[in-house]
Specification:
This protein is mainly alpha-helical. It contains four helices and no strands. The radius of gyration is 18 Å and the shape is elongated.
């Protein structure tokens, strides 16, 4: 049974690595201010990778009843971002990055919800609930920031206040 859960964790690691690479690419196009802000996102994804790798290594040789002991420590809390670092000249890029980021977070939430439905191990269900909450924090932050950049972009295009 634990093999299914390990496969889920391995896929979750890939998902986080993809997020890291995406935000790292965005940082390369964001100028000095954007680089710092987008690298914060990339580094947050690396925290997820590190946590999931550690978790994978802790449970790969355990029995079902030992699974819960492997993740006693909660994942690191997502940081609260300060996005004033990204200037108005980057609003199009920021809006695009956050839009894609929102979709990645939604996909991650759905992935963990499906994983939760797949497992019969109660400890794994608890783990997936933790990871769902983790991704929802990012989704909420990204949605808020996307909406701010969208309004700014509309203003720049002369679409406001209509």
């Amino acid at each position: 049974m634990i093999k299914v859960e390990l496969e889920i964790i391995k896929q979750a690691i890939i998902n986080e690595v993809e997020g890291y690479e995406f935000y790292k690419l965005a940082s390369a196009h964001g100028g000095e201010a954007g680089k710092e802000a987008f690298m914060e996102l990339a580094n947050e994804e690396l925290k997820h990778v590190e946590y999931l790798n550690k978790l994978f290594n802790q449970i790969k040789d355990t029995k079902d009843h030992d699974f819960e002991l492997a993740f006693e420590a909660n994942p690191p809390s997502p940081d609260i971002y300060k996005w004033n670092k990204v200037g108005k000249d980057l609003s199009s890029l920021a809006m695009s990055v956050f839009s894609i980021g929102m979709q990645m977070e939604k996909d991650s939430i759905l992935f963990y919800q499906n994983a939760k439905e797949t497992t019969n191990i109660s400890a794994a269900k608890k783990l997936f609930d933790i990871l769902i909450k983790w991704e929802k924090v990012h989704l909420d932050q990204f949605t808020t920031q996307f909406n701010l950049y969208k309004e700014e972009w509309w203003n720049e295009q002369g679409y406001a206040p209509f």
